[in-house]
Amino acid sequence: MQSAPDRHEYPAHWEADVVLRDGGTARIRPITVDDAERLVSFYEQVSDESKYYRFFAPYPRLSAKDVHRFTHHDFVDRVGLAATIGGEFIATVRYDRIGAEGLPASAPADEAEVAFLVQDAHQGRGVASALLEHIGAVARERGIRRFAAEVLPANTKMIKVFTDAGYTQKRSFEDGVVRLEFDLEPTDRSLAVQYAREQRAEARSVQRLLMPGSVAVIGAGRTPGGVGRSVLGNIRDAGFTGGLYAVNRALPEELKDLDGVPAYRSVRDIEGPVDLAVVAVPADHVPQVVTECGEHGVQGLVVISAGYAESGPEGRERQRELVRHARAYGMRIIGPNAFGIINTSDGVRLNASLAPEMPRPGRIGLFAQSGAIGIALLSRLHRRGGGVTGVTGVSTFVSSGNRADVSGNDVLQYWYDDPETDVVLMYLESIGNPRKFTRLARRTAAAKPLVVVQGARHGGAAPQGHAVRATRLPHATVSALLRQAGVIRVDTITELVDVGLLLARQPLPAGPRVAILGNSESLGLLTYDACLSEGLRPLAPLDLTTGATAEDFHAALSRVLADDACDAVVVTAIPAIGESSVGELVGDALLAEALRSAAAEVPGKPVLVVHVELGGLAEALSAAASTAPQAGDTVPGAAGGAHPPPLSASLERGDPHRPAERLPTAGAAAAPDDVGLIPAYPAAERAVRALGEAVKYAQWRRDAAEPGKVPEYEDIDEKGAAQLIDGLLARGQGLTLGTEETCELLGKYGIGVHRALPALSPDDAAVAADALGYPVALKATAPHLRHRADLGGVRLDLADEEQLRRAYAELTELFGKPQELRPVVQGMAPRGVDTVVRAVIDPAAGAVLSFGLAGAASQLLDDTAHRIVPVTDREATSLVRSIRTAPLLFGWRGSTPVDTPALEELLLRVSRLVDDHPEVVAVTLEPVVVAQRGVSVLGASVRLAPPPARDDLGPRTLPAY
What we know:
Elements: E1 16-19, E2 25-30, H1 36-44, H2 48-55, H3 64-71, E3 78-85, E4 88-98, E5 111-118, H4 127-141, E6 146-151, H5 156-163, E7 169-174, E8 177-183, H6 188-210, E9 214-218, H7 227-237, E10 243-247, E11 257-258, E12 261-264, E13 276-279, H8 286-296, E14 300-303, H9 313-328, E15 332-334, E16 340-343, E17 350-353, E18 361-368, H10 371-380, E19 394-399, H11 408-416, E20 423-428, H12 434-445, E21 450-454, H13 475-484, E22 488-490, H14 493-505, E23 513-518, H15 521-533, E24 537-538, E25 542-543, H16 550-562, E26 568-573, H17 581-601, E27 607-611, H18 615-623, E28 661-663, E29 678-681, H19 684-704, H20 718-729, E30 735-736, H21 739-748, E31 756-758, H22 762-772, E32 776-780, E33 794-798, H23 801-815, H24 818-821, E34 823-827, E35 832-842, E36 846-853, H25 856-861, E37 864-868, H26 873-881, H27 900-916, E38 920-931, E39 935-937, E40 940-944
Parallel strand pairs: 5-6, 9-10, 9-13, 10-12, 13-14, 14-15, 18-19, 18-20, 20-21, 21-22, 23-24, 23-25, 23-26, 26-27, 27-29
Antiparallel strand pairs: 1-2, 2-3, 3-4, 4-5, 6-8, 7-8, 11-12, 16-17, 16-19, 28-29, 30-40, 31-34, 32-33, 32-34, 35-36, 35-38, 36-37, 38-39, 38-40
């Protein structure tokens, strides 16, 4: 066996930061010859029992030979990895490649022995499980397919690490030792285990930030004002239930408190533990603060300080170093340049943000990458009258700023099983890991609604400070993929709040049938039209006339809610003419109670209200809830007193763009989290748009309960396709296949392509037609004419040689020489609808399958549907039906319906091809003629390349910085 330590260069790509089971972080890296002292120090801190379990005998210390062996690796046949915190080892793992007889070996031997050692103080944190994932990935990279481990029966913790990993394994017992052998190929179970561990660890890491037992604000100034002092006051005024400390190294030694908060010059001087540090010092001073926090055992940081990646290249490097520095101590970071975090739970009451007022407690989780948008969202969820009544509030709020570490993915992991959060609202300016976000979104949306608005959609680049991988997919495609994952995609902040308020307190509709009732015929008709525009099925509006009383509304709402023919109700209301202001207030309160009681009598269907200039109604209804804002209430994000919220000032009543309001559903003692709050909207279009999103989401939930299957086809030759691809890729790194190679590869998956023979002269065309048999088609395949029948470059149904030669002459006369036209002859396919099927592997989002009708009109209207690969049978069915021109496939205006089951099968076969062989980076089938019976693929192209790396199948890691 080769043993030169420099046989391979140091594999820097094996370095990774990981989140452990308790939410802390550790760094995993290869062990090198420079780690001798660290290894000895680490071993001295391991208990005698753990040493005995590792070496099967008392082993008090490592010999010089041991240290040399455990630090000298060739990174191929012998590899060691260490988990470190603060630069010191807390655990190690190594493998040694062995042959069939269990002796040291080199490739092609594909088995290795693996062994772990974890410091006792760090056992139970999931360190060994994380190391097993990483050493397994390293081994697969080096051609090792199987691990073997010998464990003493009493070492139950290590046996559990192996057995719980989810790999296919074999277990035996011999000579008093348990021998475990397991394949390293990821299985569905091993991936499920990995994802479950990832969820628990990342959720716990966010929980440590949002539910700290103690907080230190570092940078709290001696005089009022300033960021640090403001955050300190906000935490104190919110009634934080834990310990609170002010820290500023410029404080005089004799100063012991700031505004009643214990004050210190350094976090090191605080006697008790500090779970969270809010950092508000100049960027140049942050490294020293991070060091002090790490040495004191702080678990996480909220960095308010600016001057990082948003400020340019120097700031970006400063940001990278900040993340590396914090992770070295096991700390996670929100920020830098963050607005802060909020937790309204009675057991926490944390307002570690720049919002001077604590939001009202509620069931909505709120995430914003932008501080300014975060302010606007908090304000809209807090205000009444000109904004939102705020009866539904916030559970937790995170504004991530530059999102250098903690991202929307991490917070989704937390909200997934957070019992305090029913609805998730997210404002995203970038998606750093679309593949992971889609996976997490799908799982979250199956449990609770996830509403997303994405900013910077058309900017062409991520906001300054956000490190994201590039995607070649247009925004419309990304939106379609998010919708497939159950995400409710909206376009504006107003829609985000409108939809969120509806979903927070109203049940999901069972279908698209909408009853409309109210005291304005015109408003009812506007609502009816809006329902049709949103794809809903409105019933004829019920006009109660302008003289309708609260009792009339109650009776009508009760009747329609009890009617099985409707799934949701929109109530339209205008103020009674001639009422005094006092009378209007009384009437509004009676109407609110009437609607509430009717909805409570027949629960289970969503109720929305569209109101026009009902200022009295909004105020009276808000006042009916004990937590509603009263006169003089301040607004989160407003600087001092009762001021309009930033970015949403001067929202006058009656303005259709002002945020929606909520009607309370209980009396004076109503709590903000009581189920049944009725949302009210100032415009029919806004109410119906929110309802339309709820209907689509409810349908997605029902479909997700029966997700479908990826079919198996007996005629697919996966192994033969793999051999063909390997042979083709041997020619080069990337290539577009020729016609024969394309047909051969597609044929391995049961996809036949109609032959097209080149015809560079009329005689060539005649010979080709004789070989194919008449009738034939003559096509120009020049790039500017290909797939553009509308330009006249195609002649169909040529029955004999005379017609063929005449058509050939016409094409050359119109478009130029044959060498420019590149004409081909092809046998006629059955008539039908021309469609296009494409698949592409995007480096960020993964493999995507697309479908649409062929032709310029579909391209112009961007009428294409998309699904993430692998596609199930149910998804293939929905893909065909989700384009706007789908009626052409199903007998539109008396035409003959075509064979959509055959089309769906073709889509599934293409999906299988790109899923089984990631080297197939692009497939285009155009046109695909869908006839009354069967489909005909008339043109195809395939591109091969080495597949992009898939981090979702590798070990758990935090984004590299």
